Every structure is written in structure tokens, then in C-alpha cells.
Amino acid sequence: MATDQKVGRQTFDEVMVPCYAPMQIIPVKGKGARVWDQDDREYIDFAGGIAVSCLGHCHPAMVSALKEQGEKIWHLSNVMTNEPALRLAKKLTEVSFAEKVFFANSGAEANEAALKLARRYAADKFGPEKDEIIAFKQGFHGRTFFTVTVGGQAAYSDGFGPKPQAVTHLPYNDLEALAAHISDRTCAVMMEPLQGEGGIVSPTKEFIQGVRELCDKHNALLVFDEVQTGNGRTGEFYAYQGLGVTPDILSTAKSLGGGFPIGAMLTTTELAQHLKVGTHGSTYGGNPLACAVAEAVVDEVSKPEVLAGVKEREQWFRDGIEKINAQYPIFAEVRGKGLLLGAALNEAWQGRARDVLLAAGEEGLMVLVAGTNVVRFTPSLVIEKSDVEEGMARLERAIAKLYNQ
Asked: What class has domain 2-59+304-403?
């Protein structure tokens, strides 16, 4: 079989486009919150594939859904619909404000659909001059040319030629700046209800409610990018449910498939009718395999005990980090909500988040960064307490080594 071919980290440099700089280790199997590399070395996973592996690795409900669907039907195209897609769409409308669902393969694609819908709705209802999209600095919405332009990090969107127009970036959590800028020309405001890549920044209550009110005042749609915050990550099924503000359009991906690629755009019946037949599409969107796995994920994550468990686990993480920090003070604060947490480095440790990530890797722990000054934790939503404790012990050893250098 072809899998007998020996591959290692050097193979990446030989055959892969160099837009990533992966670590030297290559994980080959996972179970729960642990993974093993090619040398059978074990790691505890506090990264969850960047907030994707919400039920850990190889969760029985997901494995069984994949196997079962894998024996039935894999692909149909959108000339026909399929049962897993219909069941999943129905469930997503039951756990959210949404009445209509569009399936894609990733968060970027879900956001692309959201932005196209916002523009199309405004053009249909108010005319072509209502086209401005407001987003926020340090925001992240994907890597397609439209979504990366709307994302508020120029480093990701510069250098590819002329960008899509009528996109404005304002500071997050600055309601005055938004009030001063928004107008009847604004068709949508797109935001993360908790900034992920931008450093794990929570919105203030005043800001998030003010954004909703300003959108209503100017007939602009409020688009929530819940790619990272959704599917139980904050302890509510969607983060908006803990903020008392409902968006008009919501994008979801990452944890939705628990590791199987899938994304979705959720919206209302009134808005959805503006994407008529032929206006948007996706070859693989609504793929039966992906939808069957995502359905199993939604069934598990929407259980009240799982959502309550996220809040409990948040406290385990906060306590663990606080204990380490009392001994080796490198963090200024822990930000975020649920199991989307960021430990922000203090003044003396600025720019060293990746050092912590690499040191943790050496101790057998996988963590993430969010920028250069924040160590990010997005583990499985059902991680066992013993795994959290062992992971924290490894993190403490890693930080102790850095601290004592």
C-alpha cells in the first residue's frame, strides 16, 4: 500500500508550498486529549487543532457516524440534496436564531457566503450604493481574497494586487469610532463576538449592544463570525447567546465538524431569499460525509452537561495558569471565555509567546499562540480533569525552564 512510503518532516520542505512552518513532530494517532507522534512520543493536546477538535481525537460518536455514512453515500453535488445535510440544517436552526442554512467547507467559505449575501441583500433592497462593509482591526475572517480583505490584519491581505473595495476597518471595542463612521451607505458590520487570532479580546457589553443598535439604525446587517467561538466553545452553543445580542447572519466552521472539514452560514428566511438559484454555490458544500459527522458533533456538544462542563473546565484552566504564574510570573492576565482562552504575557515577556509554545512542545504539550504576546488554549470541550492537570504540570516545567534561563 502507498502508506508504506516513508515520510518525515524533511518531506514537507521537499514537496509542500512553504506558507507554513510546521513543528518538527508529526502526530500519527490521537485518542481523546492525547496524540502520539511518529516516534510514539505522547503529547497532551491543549490546542485542539486551533479550536477544531471539540470532542478530542477519534471520539466514538464521530468515528461511528463517519463509518456508517462511509458505507452509504459520499457525494452527490447540489443537483440533489441528501439526508445528513437536511438533518444537520434542521438541528442548526433548532440550536440558534437561524431559519436557513448554507453549507460550505470552511470558515472562510462560510464568511464569503455571509459577505456576498450582505452585499446582495443591500443591493436588492436599497440599491448598489449601499455597499460598505465595516470590520475591525485585528479581526480575522479567513484567507479568500474577500474575507482576508475584510479581516483587519493588513499583513495577510497586502501584496496580492487590488483589493475588494468599500471595506473599512475600525478599532474593536470603540463604540464612538463606529458611531462616528457608520452611515446609511453601510451594508454590514462583520465582527467576531470574541476576537480569536487578534489576541483573545472579549467585547464589552456596551460595545456589542451598541453595534447592534447602530446596525438597526442604519439598516445594516450584523454578521457574527463564530468560526472560532461557535459550537460550544464559550459555554453557550453560540457565543451570541451569552451576549444578549442576535446577529442577522452567523458563520460557523472549525468545531462544527470536530475535525472533518465543514462550514455553514446561518441566517433568516427573509435574508436567505436574496440568494436565489444560481447566485452562490459550493461543489462539496453539504457533503453527506461531512454533514453526518457534524450532526454527531452537534448532538454531543448541544447536551446541557457538555455546555456546563465547558464553564467548569474554563475554571480548571484559569486556576492552573494562575498557580503556574504565582511561581513563574510571566502572564499579565487570562482573557477569553469558556475554552477559548488567552494568557497574555506581561511587559518583561513581550514577544515571547512562540517561545512558550516551543518549550511546551518539548515537554509533551501542544498549545497555541494568538499573536506574539498571547499563549492560546483551545482544547477539547470534554477534556478530562487528569489530562488538564498533567498538561498544566508540563506547561509549568516548560515555563520554569524559560524563566530560569
From this structure: alpha beta
